[in-house]
Amino acid sequence: MKRKQRIKIALLLVVVGIAIIGIIGGNRKNEPTEKEKQIAFLKKHEEEMTEYIKYKSEYVILKKYDIKEIEYNWNSVKKVQSMAFSPETLAIEVAIFGNNNKNLDEFEIYILPDNMENPSKIKNIE
Q1: Domain ranges of the chain
Q2: Which of 4, 34, 39, 95 is such that its CA lies 20 to 30 A from the CA of 88?
Q3: For residue 100, what is the DSSP state?
């Protein structure tokens, strides 16, 4: 009799343990990854990045591009460090278009957020 009770209790503990692990694991899947947070951050600041490219980017100014449209390759977002001891930045590929949807150029811009893992504001764009 005691043996059957022990087996039932052991089975109950195993089932409860599996359920708890499943719940904890399921909650982790719902949390966005670091890259997903970074992409969401950049999408939220897309207008600021567009203003930078059109009016402040030295590269675009030197080339004298007349930009009509800008496309961001959100899948290209990555962390980069340009030089030793410099802060990490987020790099994103950009395509710029002129009249008649003509592809003028493609390049990367670099965004320095306030916090790389959970960014909330832009400190600098290059």
Answers
A1: 1-31, 33-125
A2: 95
A3: G
